[in-house]
Amino acid sequence: MPDITESEIKPPGAASDAQEDSAAPEPQEAGTASEPPQASASDDAAAKAGERLARFKALQARAKKSSETNLKEATKEAQRLASDPGQLTALRRKHAIASHKLLKAEVEEAGEDFERKRAWDWTVDESERWDRRKKKKAAHRDNNAFRDDHQESNKIYKRQLRNIKPDLEQYDRQKLAAVERAAASGGLDIVETDDGELIAVDKDGSFYSTADSTAFAQNKPDRAAVDRLVQDMRRAEEQRLKKRRERMANNGDDGDVTYINEKNEQFNQKLARFYDKYTADIRDSFERGTMI
Which residue has the higher pLDDT, 204 or 76? Predict the structure, then answer.
């Protein structure tokens, strides 16, 4: 039996300890296996936070720009409402008159003809139109006083004619439709001449209107024409009320009350316009008598 030395004798748990030592993994350095996923997640979060911050700053800049723009527009609107359009028009007219007078003085000082030099910038047609316009304005200015109802109605009629805006396209469509209806009913013949021109021939005399025609009563205007008529009537009423307020302001509120109601006041004003120049001496005599 061989001798067993003390070094060869192992304690009971020595084998298991050796196996555990061989099976146990070697210690790893920090940051080699577990740290890369955490770093990538933190980088993504930082990138998202940066994007949100950039969007927030862009929204802030946009809101600031919008508020500044709104403030500027509000300031311009307030200035526009505060300024009087009539006063601005008067200032422009005064500026144009002053420029005209200054240019005329400079040209006359140079010994030149002002009207001739100014006419160089105009054509013959423009010059003739301008002369007709000045002549018409002078005639209207001289004919401004009230004469009779017929003359006043004629002035209103001419003013309304100047404000009319005819719809030529609608007129052509209605005319074409009327011709087609008349041709379909047999009352109108379309004849072509030698040069290719088409001529409408009224066979029974029912196409063209006469003094006994009543077809105009069947016309139904469109909505735009009705609105235009209503607008003209409102404008005329506003003008009448404006003139009336001006007359009342010229008469003054501190005058003698010679009326019992509004209708009587208007009647007295009409009498005064027509007969004051004839009854001035009588009224003066009455006033002197009452003063005594």
Answer: 76
Distance between CA 290 and CA 292 in Å, rounded? Answer: 5
Candidate from 14-23, 33-42, 253-262, 278-287 with smallest mean pLDDT? 14-23
pLDDT one-digit tens code per residue, 11-60: 444 444 444 444 444 544 444 444 556 667 778 888 888 888 888 888 88
